[in-house]
Amino acid sequence: MPAELIDGAAVAKEIRAEVAQHAAALHAARDITPGLTVVLVGDDAASAVYVASKEKACKEAGMNGETIRLPHDTPQADLLALIDRLNADPAVHGILVQMPVPKHIDPQAVILRIAPHKDVDGFHPINVGRVWIGEPTGFAPCTPAGVMVLLERAGVTVAGANAVVLGRSTIVGKPMTSLLVNASATVTVCHSKTRDLADVTRRADVLIAAIGKPEFVTADMVKPGAVVIDVGINRVNDASAKRGYRLCGDVAFAQVREVASKITPVPGGVGPMTIAMLLKNTVRAAEQGA
Ligand code: NDP
Predict the structure, then answer these.
(1) Do the beta carbons of residue 33 and residue 23 sit within 8 Å?
(2) Of 46, 118, 120, 278, which residue is the least packed, with the fewest Cβ within 10 Å?
């Protein structure tokens, strides 16, 4: 029987409705409207699309969503000075500088400048540390946090499960690992130097693919009955598609679906969770008094 689909779009909608309730309650009780400010440096087309959808999602949840657009040649010092102003602004509860920033700007300097209590992207080392030690005020990066919510709402038992994370990036693989460890999974992290990769992935009860390689995970790499979460978003050329390309994940969906028990599609799986979790982190920052 083909695997059950984990519907990320539906879960993201639930989360956004919950966020809207929290935002309304905060407004009623303390006259606070949670506010997210996104800073976009340069005119990268994909980033502009992400940023616009973040602003729209904030407004739909009854939150303030502001985007500050800076020219591509903005000096790093000016960007840092803007972050200082946002850090000090009581109407701003969450700050996100859209990555990637232009090459003349050091992304780590930007991340370090954002006040940890407003770092709703969860990339500041203080938040990385808080999440690792299971400190509840820490902000986890939105994509892996979204994966945890998907697993929970799909009724997947993570405690005691063998979880394999494919990928060790700072934004997905590593935080995914810390969240799974804290949820009591037994976690193995794989990367480009991992030997006998398929032997490792075949041991996974829960397999998280985040490597950025289209349809890399094939059915022979998956244990029958495993839960497969596909974080990948890849564009592949497709002459039959209207735009000349199609989106696919890091998992060969059609064949893996025949082996897994539950699986996320791409699109409509992990993707919609990322913005939902960003809103959730922002409303939490406002509740925590950012
Ligand atoms: P990175 O390129 O930063 O990291 C990729 C990781 O995969 C690295 O750790 C790399 O290993 C590992 N890797 C690459 N090739 C192999 C291989 N052949 N075998 C084993 N491991 C390999 O990617 P990200 O983590 O940023 O993103 C991963 C995917 O998730 C992308 O498709 C991206 O588009 C998507 N994504 C989706 C989001 C969403 O909202 N749904 C948000 C963020 C990302 P090594 O460290 O050794 O180089």
Answers:
(1) yes
(2) 46
